[in-house]
Amino acid sequence: MREYTTQELTDALTAALRRAQCVLAPDRAILLECAFEASGGTAADKLSARVARFGECADKSLPLLGQYGHLTVFADTGSECGVPWRAVSDAAIAAARSLGLDVTIFIVSRTHAGENINLAVTLSDRYSQTLEAVGRTGLLPDCDEFDELVVSMLSEDALDRAAPAVIGVGIGETTDDARTAARTALARSVTASSEDPALAERERRLLARINRSSREVRLGSSRVTPALSVAIEASGGGVIAVMPADPFVNTASVTI
Hints:
The protein is α/β, with parallel strands linked by helices and 256 residues long. 41% of the residues lie in helices and 27% in strands. It has 8 helices and 12 strands. The strands form 4 sheets. Strands 4-2-5-12 form a 4-stranded mixed β-sheet, with helices on both faces. A 4-stranded mixed β-sheet has the order 6-11-7-10. A hairpin with a 2-residue loop joins strand 8 and strand 9. Helix 1 (6-19) crosses helix 4 (85-98) and helix 2 (26-39) packs antiparallel against helix 3. The longest helix has 19 residues, at 41-59. The radius of gyration is 18 Å and the shape is globular.
């Protein structure tokens, strides 16, 4: 059995947190500027204010989150690892403090076969939303019915709360596999397509399908683009997880 120290976990989480520092990536800022210019009114004002706030923190190298931020650590631990749950919690606290992040920390854990530890982090400010829908599917991403299934899983409430959303779609053999795949998809740059040409084409079609939705997705009194991007990650089949997150949620992962 491989033993992991709290310091090893702290170093790994610190590396992930550096990549997920909650500042607005340039590609998201550009897409958001287009979204709020198109929406006008209250929606434009609110989106513009948040973009400016993220941009100011990035320019001045300031921690954005303050005491109202949230850090969620997803610890996928090998069954042959010696890692007490408390060590992951202590490492998350130490990593956040080392980067000046005063955040509320949540730990979500699962176990897989093997010796490695997969750590995924999600950083968000108090206004951000990450939602989730999980269901069973016999459909593959290259089926036309797949688009309809994903759209049906995106509830009106979910899009209202996250729009303009970054949508991660995960497909796996189990619920945990699908959720992990969806979180991995969310970590991808919003301007990057899947390396699989078939999945990349499906992402483009699904994004267009969601944004053609007749649903009124609103921010304040104005209509906004339902989705900025769609990313699909597949590892097997049987279960699908759809995670719409607002574009101010940042994720990163690391394996040790």
